[in-house]
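## Example record

The block below lists the input lines for one assembly entry, exactly as stored, with component labels intact.
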Amino acid sequence: MNDMRLTERAVTEKAKMSARGVQVHYGTNHALKDVDVDILDKTVTAFIGPSGCGKSTFLRCLNRMNDTVASARVTGKIEMDGQDIYDPRVDPVQLRAKVGMVFQKPNPFPKSIYDNVAYGPKIHGLTRSKAELDEVVESSLRKAALWNEVKDRLAAPGTGLSGGQQQRLCIARAVATSPEVLLMDEPCSALDPIATAQVEELIDELRAQFSVVIVTHSMQQAARVSQRTAFFHLGSLVEYGETGTIFTSPRDPRTESYITGRIG
Amino acid sequence: MTVGLLSLLLLVLAALGFVVGRQKAIASVKGDTRNLHSLPAYYGMGVALFTAVPAFALMLVWLLVQPVLIEAQVTGMILPEDIADGSSRDLVMSDVRRIASGMDVLAERGLPEAEFAKLVTDTTALKTRLADAGVALAADINPHVAEAAAVYRAEVATGRAWLAVAALALAVAGFLLAAMRVTPEFRARNVVEQFIRVLLVAASSVAVLTTVGIILSLVFESWHFFRLYPAKDFFLSLTWAPKFGGGSSLGIWPLLWGTLYVSAIALLVAVPVGLMAAIYLSEYAGPRLRSVAKPALEILAGIPSIVYGLFALMTVGPFLRDWLARPMGIGDSSSSVMTAGVVMGIMLIPYVSSLSDDIINAVPQALRDGSYGLGATQSETVKQVVFPAALPGIVGAILMAASRAIGETMIVVLGAGAAAKLSLNPFEAMTTVTVKIVSQLTGDTEFASPETLVAFALGLTLFVFTLGLNVLALYIVRKYREQYE
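Predicted structure tokens for the full assembly:
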């Protein structure tokens, strides 16, 4: 844990999203129990915990991706800018445009690199002209630190890129819809250390524009990139707080056991 | 010895081989089977396989080769003057075989062998005797033919006897050889494995060789046809008017046009409906509905095409005529390209939907999640991500449906009529290549005139056509497979 950047922890205290008493059931399985978390604006929040602890489940509640799982049932309250996102008046499709998501495995569409990035802006009608769309594609690829590698082959299929490039393409694709929150579900688990370093650097840069929530199995990664950390265990939120505090002086013995490698 | 009895004997010998091999293996290690290289059953299996398989293989080859050899020998006994006008050597030889089989029946009824020598010289008595045995012959029996039949029968009997001796000898030799090799160090497991591999290779080559045989017979007969009828006229002429007795015009175009027209209408019906059904089933339907609807749709594929043909004839044809063709004044016949095309399209719906459904399901869920995660709706996701990803596979499915449509016969016979015509009006009766193949070969015809041989040329054309479509489909499907991972 020597590479914790304790100097960069200064964040705003304004909550972008807040969850209160969130419960998730998959059929008869009670996957998430009574979770309260505030996701702060322009902050990287890391969710850590052993496999099956509910951290991905909670992540998928934040953009209502659990709606696509037939057996899932979500109760409790999740607000974004004071608006309940599970309110019947909220269109989950609109919500997901504001809360982007990057998945564990890179999943570029079998389309060209350009069309992958242009997908979101096109379906939401965010641009008025081809020139404007070109601009959005370029700036998204630049933000994802991919522009220099692909600018000469935008028409090539996105599936032809390397694993790390594909994941950055997926990030560019999510960034292109100008989300307010970006959810990342173990975005580096399929990547090698070099690609991981690039993505982590990227996450830190993206923080300037929006909140990032990242699920990770690597505690070093959580320590490196996040300002807030939440530790989940067996479906409950055990501890949530400032990353440096969680890693240096956790209050809960389970957190301490996990970060020192005794459980998990 | 009959083939059945011989087979039974070989099987008994093989079973014995299994027991002996197993016992010997166990005895060789004094009952402690842990010291054997393989499980005892493998030793038994090895002996049984070496006993039975070579003997059965010999039997198979022998039964295929023997008739050819005997035929070649006996046919020499028939002199040119024995062949009546209008007959042929083949017809006389078939008489020989019938008389020989009649003699077998008589022998089974207890006629002593000595009597046959007399009967061969007395052909009228032979004829009445054979009629009793259920073999009725039209003309009087030529003495040469009777003699040939007797020789034929004798040769078959000797052949059978030698077959039994050879097969049994081979089986016993295999038995002894394999039994002798049973020692604790003998790798029976590996040997059996090898043996089974050879058997599997043989089984798969049967399928390949059959295909080659079918193609060769088509090519051979088509070549006969093209010697009698100019290929230029067949491929370029626009009229189809076969006349038994010569002077026919056998252009393939009216038939090919009918085939393509009917298939095109069938695909116009089957592709949109089938695809939409597939998209609904794979993307929208819940698991409960899907588990009911998919098999229900696939039942359609199990209905024999003749039943669809009846549906075309009795229901769709009159309906289209009375409600569309007549009011619009463009047709007066209930059999029409439209009738056959629509009904064939209904038949093809389950093919298109079932294949496409599998292909759409193979699109990784991760792609759908990626699209939903960007705020796309379900139909946007289907239209812009799932469908393009599945497209090459779907094209393959459509091409497979197309080659089925091109080869379909019964629906066209009952739905589209039998008139070979080049017309654009879909409410007119037309016909297809397959229907004409059937009609050229039905009835009392000999395989020597261009009017019958044309069926093979038509068949070959159709074969090349559908083969091309299937190759294209396979190529596209294979390319699609490389797209993910």
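Residues 240-481 of chain B form a domain with the MetI-like fold fold (CATH 1.10.3720.10). Chain B touches chain A through 22 residues (CB under 8 Å).
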